[in-house]
Amino acid sequence: MAVAGVSLPNGIVVACLQKHEVPIVHREVQSYFSKDLTLAPGDIVFDVGAHIGLFALEVYLRCHQNVRLYAFEPVAAIFDVLRANLERCGRGDELKAFAFGLSSNSEPAALAYYPHAPVLSTAYPDEDADLDMAKQAALTNIMHFADAPLALRSLRWVPAGLRAPLVHYAIKRALRSTPVVCQMQTLSQVVCDHGIERIDFLKIDAEKAELEIFRGIEARDWPKIRQVVVDVHDLDGRLGTMTEMLRAHGLSEIVVDQPPTLTGSNIYSVFARRRQATSPSKRIARAPSSIVSPRPPPAACAGLCLRLPSVDGSTESMPGPRERCAADNPSTLLRGLAAGHLYRLALRFLQLLFGAHQPLRRGV
């Protein structure tokens, strides 16, 4: 699949497989840096389910380009893009990408890879449930965001009775999977192999594999983990199971929230941290700019932008929160209505959104 480039709001151009995913994932990444979790220059960060590296790049900027980061992505096609994005930072010794996933064991695992929706690739495919979740997110939440993809914002002007079948149709086409076999390791195995003495921030977004990742952490390694943010699919009481595991291992300050794109679903973000054993002054002594909460202004990213050029000369900018485009204007779609092309226009929007590059035909 061709790799494209998308410009983030801070000016960084990232490689990606599907442009429509970037603003949605970028928004979710911002939500991870909340609930009193902190980052500091010099931190050690694990990015489990790294996808194309948007979280990793955000960490790199927030830590003033001083971080030891371990990013894990098991799907080869996605990993190639992740590696390309991290290599452009020119810090190979500190930003490490691994072409395997984390689990409860080191056996190979079969995953469903969705070429037209890579971010949803999973070891636990459930077509009906995944379709319903994606459709609910699109219709209830994402289409109302100012920084949502053009196609989804355009749905605001499509008659309500037509939105659901259009989105259902497009997502069903996007969720056509390709089976892939991926290598797995346990988190404790990685900690041992690389002599990692601590993990300051553990982020997990593994599309239903999060509990298996927890089970791959041996008792001796839990005390090394200072903070966790994990996306949990609350299946069979998993949310309660995982919060109890965190609490039992000393990560007792826990907040459960939902990403803004998934409000009303069974997917939750769990934020957990240890009670601080050291005073803030000691943490400041280790990292002079200890808590780096605000995102760096665009000017601070200038050097990084220069090292992240467009992949193929084709880049697309994400709109800022106050930016409006033609699709936000009712007159744009009213012209389509007047021409009698609403149905085809809406299908085209959804085709662009979900990457279904085959011609759309009635009855398909």
Topology:
Layout (H helix, E strand, L loop, with lengths): L3 E4 L5 E4 L4 H11 L12 E5 L5 H9 L5 E5 L3 H12 L7 E4 L2 E2 L6 E5 L13 H15 L8 H5 L5 H15 L3 E5 L1 E2 L1 H7 L7 E4 L5 H6 L11 E7 L4 H11 L4 E5 L9 E7 L6 H7 L15 H5 L8 E3 L12 H9 L3 H13 L10
Helix pairs in contact: 4-6, 6-13
Report on this structure:
By secondary structure, the protein is of the alpha/beta class. It has 13 helices and 14 strands. Helix 4 crosses helix 6 and helix 6 packs parallel to helix 13. The protein starts with a strand and ends in a 10-residue tail after the last helix. The relative contact order is 0.19. The C terminus is likely disordered.
In short:
This protein has two domains: 20-113 and 180-281, Rossmann fold; 135-175 and 327-354, no CATH class. It is built from 13 helices and 14 strands.
